[in-house]
């Protein structure tokens, strides 16, 4: 591995910045539309209540209204906004991984870079540095904007503190980086954009969906396992979506996990072979695991769905068995042809 610990290369950063420059603008816009507008929306509600009481000539306590509105803003920031803001924290790192890794493989950019005086460590490192700078700058722009607004509009400024805004931004960066490490890891084991997106979705929901799928199938066969129930609870409690609940426990899990994911990613990226770019998976040893995994999951899913046809006939296990066979065959064929069709001819 390259001896330099921090090998900044301006050429690589400039090259990648041309690819993701619009992402920075999108992050700024998305933060404004979710977090900043959420504060402004609460300010409008506050002004509406003030105008209502004044027009109706009713007595009201302005300090109480401000305190109530500030409490709403604090709660809004604490829970990282609404669903749209949570979704963007997944979509943004997903898109960054697609543009900087999956699409680079599709366009054979890594193959071209391999003939230049850049190590894989330098290529990988500068991509991560650029992602971090992009995410941080986008949040700094929003912080500066709200700081200026706080000075211009004193009444609006009373509804939030800069401490809350900065804390929100730190959590935002932490969550996005955690998802970025997760998606970056998956991008190093996949060779196409399509396979990366599909496998990313599968692994996002796998800790939740697989234990549930297994439990429902065993339930039809009359098997109730307390161990399986515990696995299901763990799956619901500890998955990538758990990171949105920022507390000491999740921090103690996801901060080390993010670092581990990035370390594994650089190791796998180092082992990526340019001649396998364009294949479903970067590593041939994973193909069997991928095929078996898809076969088992589709078999369980089709078995569960097919058992619904037996309602009123009392032969659910027959339909379940048929579903297992059909689902298993379809899953195997889907995985097999996905690998075969993307096989690079050498």
UniProtKB/TrEMBL annotation:
Record keywords, A-Z: Membrane, Transmembrane, Transmembrane helix
Membrane spanning stretches: 20-40, 85-102, 123-149, 165-186, 193-214, 249-269, 289-306, 318-339
Source taxon at top rank: Bacteria
Protein's recorded name: ABC-2 transporter permease
């Amino acid at each position: 591995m390259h001896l330099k610990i921090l090998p900044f290369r301006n050429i690589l950063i400039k090259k990648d910045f041309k690819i993701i420059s619009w992402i920075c603008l999108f992050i700024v816009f998305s933060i404004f539309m979710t977090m900043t507008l959420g504060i402004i929306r609460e300010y409008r509600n506050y002004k509406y209540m003030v105008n209502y009481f004044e027009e109706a000539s009713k007595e009201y306590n302005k300090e109480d209204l401000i305190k109530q509105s500030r409490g709403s803003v604090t709660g809004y920031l604490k829970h990282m906004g609404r669903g749209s803001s949570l979704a963007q924290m997944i979509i943004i790192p997903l898109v960054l991984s697609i543009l900087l890794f999956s699409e680079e493989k599709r366009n054979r950019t890594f193959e071209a870079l391999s003939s230049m005086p850049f190590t894989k460590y330098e290529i990988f490192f500068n991509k991560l540095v650029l992602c971090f700078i992009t995410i941080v700058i986008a949040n700094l722009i929003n912080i500066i904007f709200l700081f200026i607004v706080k000075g211009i509009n004193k009444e609006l400024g009373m509804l939030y503190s800069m401490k809350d805004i900065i804390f929100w931004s730190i959590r935002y960066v932490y969550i996005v980086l955690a998802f970025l490490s997760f998606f970056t890891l998956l991008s190093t084991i996949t060779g196409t954009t399509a396979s990366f997106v599909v496998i990313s979705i599968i692994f996002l929901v796998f800790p939740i969906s697989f234990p549930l799928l297994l439990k429902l199938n065993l339930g039809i066969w009359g098997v109730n396992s307390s161990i399986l129930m515990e696995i299901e609870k763990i799956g619901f409690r500890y998955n990538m979506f758990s990171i949105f609940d920022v507390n000491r426990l999740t921090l103690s899990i996801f901060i080390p996990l993010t670092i581990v994911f990035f370390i594994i990613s650089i190791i796998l990226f180092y082992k990526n072979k340019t001649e396998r770019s364009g294949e479903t998976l970067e590593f041939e040893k994973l193909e069997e695991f991928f095929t078996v995994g898809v076969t088992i999951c589709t078999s369980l899913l089709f078995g569960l769905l097919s058992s619904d046809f037996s309602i009123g006939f009392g032969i659910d296990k027959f339909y379940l068995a048929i579903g297992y066979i059909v689902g298993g065959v379809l899953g195997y064929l889907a995985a097999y042809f996905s690998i075969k069709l993307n096989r690079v001819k050498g």
